[in-house]
Write a structure and sequence with these properties.
This protein has an 8-stranded mixed β-sheet, with helices on both faces. The protein folds into 4 domains: 3-105 and 450-727, Alpha/Beta hydrolase fold, catalytic domain (Rossmann fold, 3-Layer(aba) Sandwich), CATH 3.40.50; 112-207; 210-313; 322-446, Methylamine Dehydrogenase, Chain H (7 Propeller). The longest helix has 20 residues, at 75-94. It is α+β, with helices and mostly antiparallel strands.
């Protein structure tokens, strides 16, 4: 079908699928040349056939013209992807800053990295990547001052540079290491076991799958693993080392306490440090509307699972130390509190160890017999040390605004580890002596970035409904604030996730070029507890978008930038935010990177992990939830003939979490609908995916493509160039 006919069909047949139009919308006059900024010119986008498919949602007819692009395996979809990648490459080759970006990103990314270690008997196990390597290897350091010894090198088993590994667990005696092997950015991985005494990998291997947890038994003779299955949801098995996988024993799943466990019920399992309990936490959806905790006493053969907490619509997280159950919960308190759990009675009467307060308790850990509580004070991290009875002792303080990881470690280990970083401070991992509070550097990034040239501040602005919202802003000291500078803003606003100031090489590059960077803390996140989260869920999702638009307006009114120089980027749920930005307020932004996005909110729940997210968004299959999803679903609110900003959709075949169909369908629809003459592109990777794991070189190329697009499309507009010419 010719492109012009596709547009006519969309305009005349559309009933609800493209909303807020006049009764008889007319297709726009199609530009034969697409104009990017800085002299970039492209032909019209590739022709894409529009084939209407009608759905009926409780009496409302909705037309989908690109349903055929949901089939990732069809020859037609493959041809679409190939044509789109060729079209995007035409743009990338013309971006003048792209060669410099590749060099700059190489310098920012080809630096050594190290993860916080796991300690077993004075041996430190961690991931480490040398500056000239593409992937991290697993290392051990024997003693604090010992040398680093490589244990597992991903290149030894695979020639694919996008194969990555990660530590899953270490046996209690330090003789065995369980690690995962992942291809590209997929969520699925296989799990292997290394004998640390012989240096040989055992024949035991858990095949490729989505593992929610994998932990050794206390004696190291087996592995408890929780794995997602297509038909029965999550199941917990025990694999005995040396035996075939077919003999693995089902430990937990299907049903418990008279309830069937469904496909959205996820659980993880852990063995307490003393080996006494196997603890299973069941999360009902993502985010969990309810979390249950059960445990089995491993000292009693074949003992049944007992209940710590069950059937309460709240979240619970438990650890066991010194014979006590230490439980963090938001039960009857949106900012969380920490209790001493008692399996025999309801949480209402459990002893309070750390009460709730004005600052949300974002996490906690037990290290060296101490309780470390991680709070957010207006999204700025603070760590307080307590005894296990709740007596406050010391604070772990840092000199600047930034993010701390919380203290990682074991209840019986003397030392813990904490990572500090910010948008303008590369990461440093400290070792904390829990006995003396002495702090030493375990590892510090050597990336070439002069933090002293930059400043990071926090401001507060007012959203549409009067809500006070915080925002971080970073830039070079003395940077002009007259509206002429480029600004990059990112955000998320969902799933109870708190967006804190963390180091990112892409943001660092933007700052180094003299641009502003901003991160607003939108409702839907966890920055101010469960109330903050709830205000961005279900029918209140529009609050997230309103917070985001108010942040953009604040930055423009206060002359950090103007809409002509405003770039935004977001991924996953943040990709949904980008979709709402382009459909609701295209006037605010010049360029958008929309990564691994959710965009068709009427059908998202039918694919991959989508069913689990109905506890956050709802489902169009529920009559009372359909109207609000329809109202904001980006794919269903594209307007024929609207003037949309420059857009780069970014996704890949290895995304096994958010179906790439969202980006494919939205690209086709946006290219057909936009009358602005600005580029609408699809960057479709055949290697990358939702999770981390691709090679450094792949990260360099991807970041260079994205930033070249955003930087170019926020340069001087044609109208600004014309004004300057007339002034001269």
């Amino acid at each position: 079908m010719p492109r012009s006919v596709s547009l006519l069909a969309i305009a005349l047949l559309s009933l609800v699928s493209i909303s807020a139009q006049s009764p008889n919308p007319q297709p726009p006059a199609q530009a034969t040349v697409i104009h990017g900024r800085d002299g970039i010119r492209l032909p019209a986008p590739p022709d894409v056939e529009a084939i209407p498919v009608k759905d009926d949602y409780f009496g409302t007819k909705v037309v989908d013209y690109y349903r055929w692009l949901e089939d990732a395996k069809s020859p037609e979809t493959h041809a679409f992807i190939e044509a789109q990648n060729i079209y995007t490459e035409q743009y990338i080759k013309q971006a003048k800053i792209r060669p410099q970006l590749e060099q700059d990103m190489d310098a920012l990314l080809h630096v050594g990295t190290v993860s916080a270690p796991i300690v077993r008997h004075e041996n430190y196990y961690f991931l480490k990547r040398m500056a000239d390597e593409e992937q991290a290897s697993i290392y051990v350091r024997h003693g604090w001052m010992g040398r680093d010894e490589r244990l597992v090198d991903p290149t030894a088993s695979s020639k694919d540079p996008n194969t990555s590994i990660a530590i899953r667990d270490l046996s209690r005696d330090g003789s065995l290491l369980a690690y995962s092997v992942r291809e590209g950015g997929a969520d699925e991985a296989s799990i292997r076991v290394l004998d640390l005494k012989t240096g040989k990998t055992l024949e035991d291997e858990l095949p490729n799958g989505l593992y929610l947890s994998a932990k050794f038994t206390y004696d190291g003779k087996g592995i408890y693993y929780a794995r997602m299955t297509k038909l029965k949801g999550a199941l917990l098995y025990l694999h005995t080392l040396g035996k075939r996988n077919s003999t693995d024993e089902l430990i937990f799943g299907h049903e418990f306490h008279g309830e069937l466990l469904g496909p959205i019920d996820l659980f993880t399992a852990n063995v307490t440090e003393d080996g006494r309990y196997l603890v299973v936490r069941i999360s009902r959806g993502v985010p969990a509307r309810r979390q249950d905790i059960v445990y089995r006493d491993l000292r009693k053969p074949d003992s049944p699972f007992e209940i710590l907490v069950w059937g309460i619509d709240a979240q619970f997280d438990a650890a066991c130390a010194q014979g006590k159950w230490i439980v963090r919960t938001n039960y009857h308190t949106p900012n969380w509190k920490i209790l001493e759990g008692d399996p025999g009675i309801l949480p209402d009467v459990w002893k309070i160890i750390v009460p709730d307060g004005p600052d949300v308790i974002d996490g906690y850990s037990i290290v060296g017999g101490k309780l470390y509580v991680h709070r957010l004070h207006d999204v700025k991290a603070a760590i307080q040390e307590y005894t296990l009875t709740g007596h406050a002792t010391r604070k772990l303080e840092f000199d600047a605004i930034g993010d701390t990881s919380g203290v990682s470690g074991e209840p019986g280990e003397r030392y813990g580890f904490v990572n500090f970083q910010s948008f303008i401070v590369p990461p440093t991992i400290f070792r904390i002596d829990t006995a003396t509070d002495k702090r030493e550097v375990f590892w510090q990034s050597k990336v070439q970035f002069d933090s002293s040239q930059f400043e990071l501040k926090q401001v507060f602005y007012t959203s549409k409904d009067g809500t006070r919202v915080p925002m971080f802003i970073a830039g070079k000291k003395g940077l002009k604030q007259d509206g002429s500078e480029r600004l990059l803003m990112t955000g998320y606003g969902g799933f109870d996730l708190s967006e804190t100031p963390v180091w990112n090489p892409a943001y660092a590059w933007w700052l180094n070029q003299g641009g502003w960077f901003a991160l607003p803390n939108l409702r839907g996140g966890g920055e101010y507890g469960e109330h903050w989260h709830e205000q961005g869920m279900f029918e209140r999702k529009q609050n997230v978008f309103d917070d985001w638009f108010a942040a953009a307006e604040y930055l423009i009114v206060n002359h950090y930038t103007s809409s002509e120089h405003f770039a935004i980027m977001g991924r996953s749920n943040g990709g949904l935010l980008m979709g709402a930005s382009m459909t609701q307020r295209p006037d605010l932004f010049a360029a958008i990177e929309c990564g691994y996005p959710l965009l068709d909110m009427l059908r998202y729940q039918k694919f991959l992990s989508g069913p689990q997210w109905t506890t956050e968004y709802g489902s169009a299959e529920v009559e009372e939830q359909f109207p609000y999803l329809m109202k904001y679903s980006p794919y269903h609110n594209v307007k024929i003939g609207a003037h949309y900003p420059a857009i780069l959709f970014f996704t890949g075949d290895s995304d096994t979490r958010v179906e790439p169909l969202h980006a494919r369908k939205m690209t086709a629809l946006m290219q057909a609908a936009s009358a602005s003459g600005r580029p609408i592109l699809l960057h479709y990777s055949l290697k990358g995916g939702h999770s981390a794991g691709v090679s450094v070189e792949q990260q360099i190329q991807d970041n260079a493509d994205i930033l070249a697009f955003l930087w170019t499309e926020t340069g001087k507009s044609n109208s600004e160039v014309l004004r300057k010419t007339n002034d001269q």
